[in-house]
Design a protein that fits this description.
heterodimer; A: about 110 residues; mainly beta; seven-stranded mixed beta sheet; four-stranded antiparallel beta sheet; 11 strands; about 0% helix; B: about 110 residues; six-stranded mixed beta sheet; five-stranded antiparallel beta sheet; globular
């Protein structure tokens, strides 16, 4: 069974630009969550999607948004990039609606210059 | 908000046992997890324990949960140099879907 895949793996963007990251969950998994990992703040929850609906949202500004498609693939978008958005963005997939084991992808390393 | 705390660093000799500790504050935690992260990589799920269990063993890994003290530990038996990594504990609760709250991570260094 293929694991969680994330594309692209690395990205360099300039301040003020926007970026879209993609996540394909494990086959059959319907929940996708996104996390931001930085040296200063650690791992922070961004949002979770289940069956194309956002179920939970972390404490991030509205510049961070996401969506989920009918095949459970998910994208997250960050608009008007700031230097502080430089981070490893991780997505995790899980089978269902309640707390379950979650499997992470390798992450997308975003650098904002 | 809810909090998960871990010590920053642990150093052990190859062949010894490692014990990584974690405390959490959310009394409604349903699952507690241990993840491993190697340099430049994502998070690898090592094991998890449901909150109504006291212990779970999986090969070299033993998880102990003291729900009264809200204390979770991960014991790695016969630690190898390949176990050197950052270990994160995390918790999720019934009222928060699949949202995980992570500790800050414990860096394990295994000396030959």
């Amino acid at each position: 069974k293929a694991g969680v895949t994330q594309t692209p793996r690395y990205l360099i963007k300039t301040r003020g630009q926007q970026v879209t990251l993609s996540c394909s969950p494990i086959s059959g998994h319907r929940s996708v969550s996104w996390y931001q990992q930085t040296p200063g703040q650690g791992l922070q929850f961004l949002f979770e999607y289940f069956s194309e609906t956002q179920r939970n949202k972390g404490n991030f500004p509205g510049r961070f948004s996401g969506r989920q498609f009918s095949n459970s693939r998910s994208e997250m978008n960050v608009s008007t990039l700031e230097l502080g958005d430089s981070a490893l963005y991780l997505c995790a997939s899980s089978p269902g609606q309640g707390p379950h084991e979650q499997y992470f992808g390798p992450g997308t390393r975003l650098t904002v210059t | 908000g809810e909090d998960v705390e871990q010590s920053l660093f642990l150093s052990v000799r190859e062949g010894d046992s490692s014990v990584i500790n974690c405390t959490y504050t959310d009394s409604s935690s349903t699952y507690l997890y241990w993840y491993k992260q190697e340099p430049g990589a994502g998070l690898q799920l090592l094991t998890y324990i449901f909150s109504n269990m006291d212990m779970k063993q999986d090969q070299r890994l033993t998880v102990l949960l003291n729900k009264k003290d809200k204390h979770l530990s991960l014991r790695i038996a016969d630690t190898q140099t390949g176990d050197s990594a950052i270990y994160f504990c995390a918790e999720s609760s019934d009222n928060a879907g699949n949202m995980l709250t992570f500790g800050g991570g414990t860096r394990l260094m295994v000396k030959p």
